[in-house]
Design brief:
Elements (H helix, E strand, L loop, with lengths): L9 H10 L3 E5 L4 H12 L3 E6 L6 H10 L2 H4 L2 E5 L5 H8 L4 E4 L6 H6 L1 H22 L3 E7 L22 H20 L3 E6 L1 E3 L12 H11 L3 E4 L5 E2 L1 E3 H13 L2 H4 L2 E5 L5 E2 H15 L8 E4 L14 H7 L7 H20 L1
Helix pairs in contact: 2-3, 2-10, 5-7, 7-8, 9-12, 9-14, 12-14
């Protein structure tokens, strides 16, 4: 496995894609991360197919994409409403696809603990269906979303791809199994697969509703509405929060990097910056006051930690930097400010 030259950059990648467009399948393309991928690909004048059953994604996300891209770019999008547990739906969506960006999943630790069977069916069987469909369609690259949850009980403060511990949830198990299947499909069938171990992704369009909502949209919504912020644990839990724009960047770089640099491998995708939850609340308060002078962060309420949660999480992104050319383009505070402004805009629009 060889490293990329330092001259490889996202700007160069973007120019290459504009000059030589490809056909892309984005599973979960109506979801949070998926819709940002669709938007970037359409802006780069690619042909895009979305496969989504709308269980967690929404037409609203795609409507927002429509307003963000040129009319002729939107015409290059095909939307298929279907389930990745349906092998025929996967086969039809993969037809003529050059690249598969597989984002569809049940991405919740608590949901997986409550219902491990459904998590397995969607995450494992669904991924196996797509791998087989991509193989049969002759796809040139299969990039899939894995998770930092695969590190489990690994005690190392900075997570490195070759060091994992015992898994702490069925969700983590499902992602580890998907990595094994992807590596096997590369070894057996020469399908070039690339796994991206997302750390804590945040950004516009992330759903703050429901009992399993991610912490940043949940707390931003609470701050905007001046309701208490609930913290699971003492606030000393640390996370590597990464902007969705950096995750989009990583997906496209994984799709375009030389095969011998990435195929059959998994890479950490994070910011390389560790922030504890108490510090995150302070950042939200600072940005809230900047965007809405005089408004302060509401009261913080601490409660019991959640079962299955990892105490500390930090991405070592050196492997992704060397082999994907991944260098996060959006800093954490800038991404947080953009995210808070987006939620504020959504709140204002809902009141009109």
């Amino acid at each position: 496995m060889s490293a990329l030259p330092l001259s490889f950059s996202y700007d160069l990648l973007s120019a290459t894609l504009r000059k030589h467009p490809r056909r892309w399948l984005v599973t979960g393309g109506a979801g949070f991360i998926g819709s940002h991928l669709v938007e970037e690909l359409l802006n780069l004048r690619q042909s895009v197919v979305v496969l989504d059953n709308l269980s967690s994604g929404s037409w609203r996300n795609l409507d927002e994409v429509r307003t963000a891209v040129e009319v002729d770019a939107w015409a290059s999008l095909e939307i298929r409403e279907g389930d990745i547990r349906d092998l025929d739906a996967c086969a039809a969506a993969c037809k003529e696809a050059d690249v598969v960006l597989h984002q569809a999943a049940i991405a919740s630790v608590p949901a997986s603990i409550e219902d491990p069977h459904t998590t397995h069916d969607v995450n494992v069987t669904g991924t196996l269906n797509l791998l087989a469909a991509a193989r049969d369609a002759g796809a040139k690259r299969f990039v899939y979303a894995s998770s930092s949850a695969v590190y489990g009980t690994d005690p190392n403060p900075s997570k490195q791809e070759d060091k994992v511990g015992y898994l702490l949830s069925p969700y983590a198990a499902s992602k580890a199994i998907c990595e094994t299947y992807a590596q096997t499909f590369f070894q057996c069938y020469k399908l070039p697969t690339v796994g991206l171990r997302y750390f804590n992704v945040f950004g516009p369009r992330q759903d703050p509703a429901g009992p399993y909502a991610a912490v940043i949209p949940l707390w931003i919504e609470a701050a905007l509405s001046q309701e208490p912020i609930f913290v699971n644990g003492d606030g000393g839990t640390t996370r590597d929060f990464v902007s969705v724009r950096n995750v989009v960047q990583a997906n496209l770089q994984a799709a375009m990097a030389p095969e011998d640099s990435v195929a059959g491998e998994a890479f950490n995708i994070g910011s390389g910056e560790q922030i504890d939850l108490n510090e995150l609340i302070r950042h939200i308060g600072d940005i809230l006051n900047e965007q809405f002078p005089g408004r302060s962060v509401p009261a913080t309420v601490y409660r019991e930690p959640r079962v299955g949660d990892i105490r500390h999480s930090l991405a070592d992104v050196s492997k992704a930097e060397g082999n994907l050319g991944f260098r996060p383009r959006v800093r954490f505070k800038d991404g947080l400010a953009e995210t808070l402004a987006w939620y504020a805009g959504q709140s204002a629009a809902a009141q009109d």
